[in-house]
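for the recovery benchmark. tokens below, seq after
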């Protein structure tokens, strides 16, 4: 397989599954964590390595190493693998998704931005989601008629922070997630609830359904719920470990224990909360974006720029959602006709902030 984003949390867990099931790794693509990448190279012996920056080339312990987005695409074109695990962060993951599908490769997708920004132009039959929420929904389906799909949210770093303090929260505080250890961007997205908005858009494209919602389940052991036409509701419950959805995405079927089952006696109790727009202003557009999913590219571009500004201490925490909502209004009449339009509007939104 090809692993895009091998040194991130999804990439590391993907290689854990590869190790456990003795799977071959053809290509590793990584960012700036060269020390970890070199450990992965020594263990998995890929034929090709791609990194983010030219300055790091001399530090990579491999004979066939290159850098940059074009090199990622070239590596995919020249590969023999039928599976691409795309765990790249942000808009940068879109082209690898598109080109992999063109080459008839299966894409195990953790790069949620691919579907968020261009779901209407992507053949989802070639995609297997890695997100625990979408994995949970798929796991529950069983060919029954669905009324509604619901995914859960942890609530993020500021789930219990007094509302009047949110404006003053620092990047360090925002990156202190209560349940998960993730990369910086997705942790900030969890705190603003943008991550869950993105996952609803993904679910819309993956499952062709409009009746979608999300709720807060603070322990993150319930990942998805489906209300069926018959009035029953089924929940997917599992420990907080990405190896399970990754294993299914890679192997299709898993016949050995990946995680320890949940002990409900130890859990004792669960609590659920409504996602409200006073704490998560981005939620104001939840219903509208599901009716206009093509505007996902606008939200994503604005969000990526705003997060970068926040992490650089240029804006406050609540300014992230403010910037996104302003761009959503400004570019509301955008309607893409093709993928070129997606790339153009992405540039336009970013340059407007």
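predicted aa per position
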């Amino acid at each position: 397989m090809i692993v895009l984003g091998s040194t991130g949390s999804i990439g590391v867990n993907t290689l854990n599954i590869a190790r456990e099931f003795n799977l071959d790794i053809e290509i590793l693509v990584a960012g700036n964590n060269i020390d970890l990448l070199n450990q992965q190279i020594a263990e998995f012996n890929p034929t090709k390595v791609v990194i983010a920056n030219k300055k790091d080339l001399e530090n990579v312990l491999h004979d066939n190493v290159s850098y940059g987005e074009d090199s990622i695409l070239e590596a995919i074109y020249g590969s023999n693998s039928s599976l691409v695990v795309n765990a790249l962060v942000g808009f940068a993951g879109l082209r690898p998704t598109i080109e992999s599908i063109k080459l008839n490769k299966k894409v195990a997708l953790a790069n949620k931005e691919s579907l968020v920004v261009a779901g209407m132009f992507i053949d989802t039959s070639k995609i297997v989601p890695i997100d625990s929420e979408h994995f949970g929904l798929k796991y529950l389906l069983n060919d029954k008629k669905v009324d509604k799909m619901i995914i859960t949210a942890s609530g993020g770093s500021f789930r219990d922070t007094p509302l009047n303090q949110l404006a003053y929260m620092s990047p360090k505080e925002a990156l202190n997630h209560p349940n998960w250890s993730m990369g910086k961007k997705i942790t900030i997205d969890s705190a603003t609830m943008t991550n869950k908005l993105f996952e609803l858009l993904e679910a819309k494209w993956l499952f062709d359904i409009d009746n979608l919602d999300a709720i807060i389940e603070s322990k993150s052991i319930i990942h998805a719920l489906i209300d069926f036409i018959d009035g029953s509701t089924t929940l997917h419950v599992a420990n907080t470990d990405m190896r399970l959805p990754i294993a299914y995405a890679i192997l299709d079927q898993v016949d050995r224990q990946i995680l320890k089952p949940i002990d409900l006696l130890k859990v004792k109790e669960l609590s659920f909360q409504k996602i409200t727009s006073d704490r998560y202003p981005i939620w104001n557009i939840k219903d509208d974006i599901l009716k206009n999913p093509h505007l996902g590219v606008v939200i994503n571009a604005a969000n990526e720029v705003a997060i970068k500004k926040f992490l650089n201490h240029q804006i406050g925490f609540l300014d992230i959602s403010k910037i996104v909502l302003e761009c959503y209004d400004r570019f509301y009449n955008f309607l893409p006709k093709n993928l070129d339009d997606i790339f153009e509007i992405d540039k336009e939104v970013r340059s407007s902030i």
